[in-house]
Specification:
The complex is a heterodimer of chains A (about 160) and B (about 140). With about 160 residues, chain A is mostly beta strands. Chain A has 3 helices and 6 strands; from the N terminus they run αβααβββββ. Chain B has a domain of about 100 residues: Hotdog Thioesterase (Thiol Ester Dehydrase, Chain A), CATH 3.10.129. Chain B starts with 16 loop residues before the first strand and ends with a strand. Classes of the chains: A mainly beta (about 160), B alpha+beta (about 140). The interface between A and B is large, with 39 and 41 residues.
Amino acid sequence: MAKEFEISDEMRAQIGKESPPWLHEVTTTSVRAFARGVGYTDPVYFDLDAAHKAGYRSLPAPPTYLGTPVFIPGRSSDTFSGPTEGQPAIKHGLPGLLDGGTETEYFDQICAGDTLVVVSKVAGLDVRESKSLGKMLITTNETTYTDQKTGKLVARQRGQAIFY
Amino acid sequence: MAVTWDVVKEGQELPALEKNPGVTQLVKYAAGSGDFNPLHHDYAFPQSKQIGSIIVHGRFKYASLGELVSNWLGHNGRIQKLSCQYRGMDTPNSPIRCKGVVKKKWEAGGQKLAELDIWTENGKGEKTTPGSATVIFR
């Protein structure tokens, strides 16, 4: 548990820097894998006929699923599967990590067959204190998801991570 | 039965979705989402030992709230915005009840919209994951 923690100029300099784009694939198999992981029983997320009948062009991405990042050993995180190359990194030295919150805005329906171009940045840094975890660094990340074919922004996600 | 715009009323409750994920379910979620943080499957991981258990992915609860809204909406519209905060940890093999209520119903710019309060409750009835959603009806 950290008693003291301050945001350094070096950390602050990372705010707003955009990562290089990375591709996320949405496939019928990846939609089914996510839907199984959550525990869906709605056939629309599994069965193409049911998806077409419900008015979708293919299996729709279940809420909060924004594709699977293309995984390349050495360039992707073995733990979180996202890219590590060129990503804005805050060197804070705090060992604990918890998720703080997530907000997703959708501008269009994402379906299997889509490839999304994903760019993220650190939007903000904050220090808070809790009785049980001590001084915590709260990072806010903003990630945009653009359809590779149409160039249209389809989703934006903001997430808070808690380091302690 | 899926809801339609005409029958939506402010104060209406969404049919609750009850989950009770075991370790195998969390492993499936890890595979589906790509989040292999050992805190969600490895009891020997230092952070798990410190907490006293592995914990359910916050994002599993977020996705479950998405399922709650999706089941209610029944593809008669789409989610425009979905958010939640991870206020309390949940451990495997304990109930996670996803609930929601219609907070507001309105029309704007030719769109039929509803805002929902959504949350998960643990076995003690504590809201561990409060959130909100905005949906657009067809």
